[in-house]
Design brief:
The structure is a single chain. This protein is α/β, with parallel strands linked by helices and 399 residues long. 39% of the residues lie in helices and 14% in strands. It contains 14 helices and 12 strands. It has helices at residues 9-15, 43-50, 65-78, 89-100, 115-125, 140-147, 170-179, 229-242, 248-258, 261-280, 299-305, 321-331, 361-367, 383-398, and strands at residues 82-86, 106-110, 131-135, 154-158, 183-187, 205-209, 223-227, 285-289, 313-318, 336-337, 347-349, 373-377. The strands form 2 sheets. Strands 1-7-6-5-4-2-3 form a 7-stranded mixed beta sheet, sandwiched between helices. Strands 8-9-12-11-10 form a 5-stranded mixed beta sheet. Strand 4 (154-158), helix 7 (170-179) and strand 5 (183-187) form a beta-alpha-beta unit. The model has no long low-confidence stretch (mean pLDDT 95). It binds pyridoxal-5'-phosphate. Pyridoxal-5'-phosphate binds at residues 88-90, 114, 116-117, 158, 187, 189-190, 209, 211-212, 221, 223. Pyridoxal-5'-phosphate (PLP) binds next to helix 4 and helix 5.
Length: 399
C-alpha cells in the first residue's frame, strides 16, 4: 500500500517513512540507510536470510548496507580478505585483540601506545584473561626475545609512535612475529592506507581509528580493521554481541572521506615536511621530530617504508618549556589547539597536557615528552598560510 492510498491521518503520519519512491534511475552514490530493522516477504525468506543462504539485512546492530560497504572498501584498500567496522577505533582494537588472543593467552604490546589503548590493556585485558607484556617495538631483537619462551599469541604495535612520531619497522617485526608463530596486529592510524599497508609488509591485521585520516574531517567517530576473514568474523560477532558495531551515518561519512584520502594525505605530508624544515631551522626550536627530514634518525626507514611521504604528523620541542609552548599556542591566529589529528584543518596539541597528561612528570621525561613539546597534525591548507601562522606562534615563543 502506498501513502496516497491511506486515508486516516494517524496512519499516514505513522507510515510516511515507509514510502520509498522508486524511479527508473539509480542514485549515483549509496543512499544513507538509517533503518534499524529490515522487512521480509515471507517465512521462507526469513529462513534463508537467517541461515545465510540469501543475502539480506535483519537488524541494525547486526549489519547495515552502509557499514557493509565501508567494510568492503577497507578490505580492498588494505588488501585483506575481510574488513570490519566498529563504533570507534577503540572498539575495533578491542574486538581485534579478543579475536587474536585466546583466553589465557599472552599479548606483547609496544610500550608507549596511544593512551586509550594503554589504558584498555591495563584496565581490561587481564579481566578478559589476557596477559599483557610491554616491549620497545623499535627494538626488533628485544621483540624477538620477548616472543620466546611461553610464546605470545600476538604482537600489537603502531606504525608511527605518538607523540614523537618514530617509525616502527613493520616489515622486520612481521618476520620476527612469523618466526615465533605470533600474529602481528598493527594500528596504522597515523600512517593511513594512503602511505602504508601493513598487510603488504607481512602483518596479519591492521586497525585504524577512522575518526582520524580515513574520515578526515573531524566530524565522526569510527574504527575499522582488516585481516583474515575468519578472524574478522569473530571480531564482528563480538561487536554485535556487545553492541559496539558502527552506525550507518558514520559509515557513510567515512566512505565519503575515503574518496579524498590519498589527496588529503599527500597534501598533509607535503605541508608537514615543509613545516618541519622551517621549524628545524628556527632558533627557538630545540628539536624537530619528522622522519621526512633528511637529518632525522628515522629517515632511512621512512624512505623504504613510507616512500610516498612520512605523513602529516610532526612534533617539535621549544627551548623555553611550558611557558614557550603556551606563548606559541597563544600567538597562533588560525591554527587551533585540538587534541586529535588527521583532520583537513591543521591541529596543534600539547602532549604533556593532553594525550600524556595521566603520566607522571618523570615518566614523561623518560619518554622524551617535555613541557615544551608541541605536536602538529598538518592539514590541507595552503602552505603559505600555515607557515605564516606558525611564524606568529614562534615569534611569540621567542620573547
Ligand atoms: C585516536 C586513536 C585511537 C582510538 O580511536 P577512537 O576512534 O578515538 O576510538 C587508537 N589508536 C590511535 C593511534 C589513535 O590515534
Amino acid at each position: 500500500m502506498t501513502i496516497d492510498e491511506i486515508r486516516r491521518r494517524a496512519t499516514i503520519a505513522a507510515r510516511a517513512m515507509e514510502d520509498a519512491p522508486a524511479g527508473g534511475t539509480r542514485p549515483a552514490v549509496a543512499p544513507l540507510q538509517l533503518a534499524s530493522v529490515f522487512t521480509f516477504r515471507d517465512l521462507g525468506q526469513v529462513d534463508r536470510v537467517y541461515e545465510g543462504e540469501e543475502r539480506g539485512y535483519i537488524y541494525g546492530r547486526l549489519g547495515n548496507p552502509n557499514v557493509d560497504a565501508l567494510e568492503r572498501a577497507v578490505a580492498a584498500l588494505e588488501g585483506a580478505e575481510a574488513g570490519m567496522a566498529a563504533a570507534s577505533g577503540m572498539a575495533a582494537l578491542w574486538a581485534t585483540v579478543l579475536a587474536a588472543v585466546p583466553p589465557g593467552g599472552r599479548l606483547l604490546a609496544s610500550a608507549g601506545l596511544y593512551g586509550g589503548t594503554e589504558q584498555l590493556l591495563h584496565e581490561d585485558a587481564r579481566r578478559a584473561g589476557i596477559e599483557v607484556f610491554f616491549v620497545d617495538a623499535r627494538d626488533p631483537e628485544a621483540v624477538g626475545r620477548a616472543l620466546e619462551g611461553p610464546g605470545a599469541a600476538a604482537l600489537l604495535v603502531e606504525t608511527i609512535t605518538n607523540p614523537l612520531v618514530r617509525l616502527v619497522n613493520v616489515p622486520r617485526l612481521a618476520r620476527v612475529a612469523r618466526s615465533r608463530d605470533a600474529l602481528l596486529l598493527v594500528d596504522n592510524t597515523f600512517a593511513s592506507p594512503a602511505l602504508f599497508c601493513p598487510l603488504e609488509a607481512g602483518a596479519d591485521v591492521v586497525v585504524h581509528s577512522a575518526t582520524k585520516y580515513l574520515g578526515g574531517h573531524a566530524d565522526l567517530v569510527a574504527g575499522v580493521a582488516a585481516g583474515p576473514a575468519e578472524m574478522m568474523a569473530r571480531a564482528r560477532a563480538l561487536l554485535q554481541r556487545t553492541g559496539a558495531t558502527l552506525e550507518p551515518f558514520s559509515a557513510w561519512l567515512t566512505l565519503r572521506g575515503l574518496a579524498t584520502l590519498e589527496l588529503r594525505v599527500r597534501r598533509q605530508s607535503d605541508n608537514a615536511l615543509r613545516l618541519a624544515g622551517e621549524l628545524a631551522a628556527h632558533p627557538v626550536v630545540k628539536r624537530t621530530y619528522y622522519a621526512g627530514l633528511p637529518e632525522d634518525p628515522d629517515h632511512g626507514l621512512a624512505r623504504t617504508m613510507l616512500p610516498e611521504g612520512a605523513g602529516g604528523m610532526l612534533t617539535f620541542e621549544l627551548e623555553g618549556g611550558e611557558a614557550a609552548a603556551d606563548a606559541f599556542l597563544r600567538g597562533l591566529r588560525m591554527l587551533k589547539l585540538a587534541p586529535s589529528l588527521g583532520d583537513v584543518m591543521t591541529a596543534v596539541s600539547h602532549p604533556a597536557k593532553t594525550s600524556h597528561r595521566s603520566l607522571s612528570p618523570e615518566r614523561r621525561a623518560t619518554l622524551g615528552i617535555g613541557p615544551g613539546l608541541v605536536r602538529v597534525s598538518a592539514g590541507i591548507e595552503d602552505y603559505e598560510d600555515l607557515r605564516a601562522d606558525a611564524a606568529r606562534g614562534l615569534a611569540a615563543a621567542t620573547c
